[in-house]
């Protein structure tokens, strides 16, 4: 008896002759099965389409013989409707390549190389990574699509591109995500009107809860970040911020000092909030914002800090480097954020001062006939 012909042409000829809807193909030095198959579990496609299944077999006589048997088995399952992707290794992304597993290894590596609070990880890294499909393989397309899903020239787009680029570099994925980050920066923040000091004082009185009045007053008088209100204490030298976005610092002076006395701010009166747990989860600031929205405040809590920055520099003439230090900024960041507002406020103040003088020149007037 002549030996069975195991060339690819012969193998596929026999499969076609017996109506097996599968072919054996060569890819590199290995063999694959090709057929019209249902979408994989993680696929966005809805209809059956041509797909390939790796056999792991070499392209030799023995491999082709085994591949033919695998094709017959696969064809039988397709014909009798019992095909399931779970039966094939290629249906399941190797766990080590899944987004969630790559992120897990990245976090471990990053924490070993950097001193990192859990809150910092949650706010700056986890909130980006949690948007990735957990069980899908981490690919350049998935990373790119996630970046492009964010609004252009926004802080969210910039942070997403930067964080996912770091993940791609760690995973050895060749993709340039930074080209999509846009031109967001502190100086690009949308212009908005800051509340006047008079409006700030008026709205404090409209807050019905004494504890939240105290939170509001602390932000207005000392310019601290919303979450820092829960991690500060008074000392003989001033207000000591114990921890926060930029670490501990001392705020020597309130502007205005009268607010401290009038609002009795030195008597600590914090709301009952599990600040430590919320801070670690990275949502303490969000809780504060939500609370003040309930009072229908016409500006955000962070605007109290912005107003303090302008007030300290323009009205109280605190040097900008000192104001930056009290706010927990570098001078460079401080100027990028506030220079425009400072210039506008100084201009208004200068004109107001000039126009209040008694010896202003009189306008030439033509007698009315």
From TrEMBL:
**Protein name (record):** Tyr recombinase domain-containing protein
Ranges annotated as biased composition (Polar residues): 50-61
| InterPro entries on file | DNA_brk_join_enz, Integrase-like_cat_sf
Region of interest (Disordered), ranges: 37-66
Task: Respond yes or no to whether keyword Transmembrane helix is given for this record.
Answer: no
The domain of life is: Bacteria
Tell me the Gene Ontology biological-process terms attached to this UniProt entry.
Answer: DNA integration; DNA recombination
What are the recorded GO MF terms, alphabetically?
A: DNA binding
